[in-house]
Amino acid sequence: MSGHMTDITADIPIPFAGDVLDYAENARDPEHLQALLGQTSARAILLFKGRIGVGAGGRPHRVHPSDLIGHDLMAPGPIYLGQEGDRPIFAFSIANPEEFMPEENFVSLRGIGGNLKPTDLALAGRAKSLFAWHHLEKHCVSCGAQTVARDGGVKQKCTGCGAESFPCVSPVAIMLVTDGDKVLLGRGPGWPDGFMSALAGFVSTGESLEGAAQREVMEEVGIKTKNPRYVFSQPWPFPAQLMMGLILEAVTTEITIDPKELEDAKWFTRDEVLAVLEKRGDAFLCPPRQTIAHQLLRHWLAETA
Predict the structure, then answer these.
(1) Segment 170-180, tens digit of pLDDT
(2) Phi-psi domain of 24 (left: phi exceeds 0; alpha: psi -120 through 50; beta: other)
């Protein structure tokens, strides 16, 4: 066993899944939220066009909600993310970032996600997803009238018919197909040369997670599988997926690629995968550490050690 093995297979928090907030779902009436905004301990993180404001130390910059008074804010105003112990945590989407810090301090979670603490990443991901929902869903699906935010931004209410709506989460199956000490990885159209990742696809209406995983593998690479096994999940705020990781066993191994789905797919040995993750091999370009595909590979290496 290599000297790097412990690092590669050690348990680490799943990126975007390290949320320690109490969402306080039953304590969100307007008067209570207003009181929380005024608490001395209250803090808010800032977003600009879906990017997170990062301050000293590489952490999301925090301000007191009163610091936002007099500044241009984007709808729906403050979002109450929840309680961090006794500290209320809010998020604001601002119109003029330079009023708080240089615009370049507002960075994409795709670019810096691997550098943030798990709790900071989860906090920023929750805020990003909620603001994306309010930006994309502004009208009632029942009558078409405009909606307004309620309960600190975790609900919308129609101004016409009064119907309530809640953030949608899209379920995605993401899976490693294994054959003994080999694992199957693929590359989507337009991805960088050499970049390979786990196969994935949206769960269809009326479909089980396991069924979706087996269907997607058959559609994308023509391989029949068995024993789909759930491993772990990951919130993915681009804009609001729930990535559910599985490992399946191959029944057949001949690859038949659907070119509408993939540009390439290959089997890799355990030794090749380990060498890539230890940065001493170049069989393929590995998905970033903050992705569930990366974590699935680490998990598989640990299981097969």
Answers:
(1) 999 999 999 99
(2) left
What average pLDDT score do residues 59-63 get?
96
Take residue 144 and report the two structure tokens written for it. Answer: 């078409």
- Annotate 68-95 with DSSP letters as a single string: GTTS-B-TT--EEEEEETTEEEEEEEBS
The pTM of this model reads: 0.92
Beta strands 51-53 and 43-48, pairing class: antiparallel
197 touches 186 (CB < 8 A): yes
Cα gap 34→29, rounded to integer Å: 9
Integer Cα distance of 176 and 86 in angstroms: 41
How many angstroms separate the CA atoms of 185 and 197, rounded?
Answer: 5
CB-based contact 280:268 (threshold 8 Å) = no
Q: Locate 196 and state its tokens.
A: 């390979």
DSSP 258: -
- Choose among 107, 90, 292: nearest CA to 198: 292
Cα 3 to chain centroid distance, Å, stands at 31
- CA-nearest of 99, 86, 82, 85 to 46 is 99
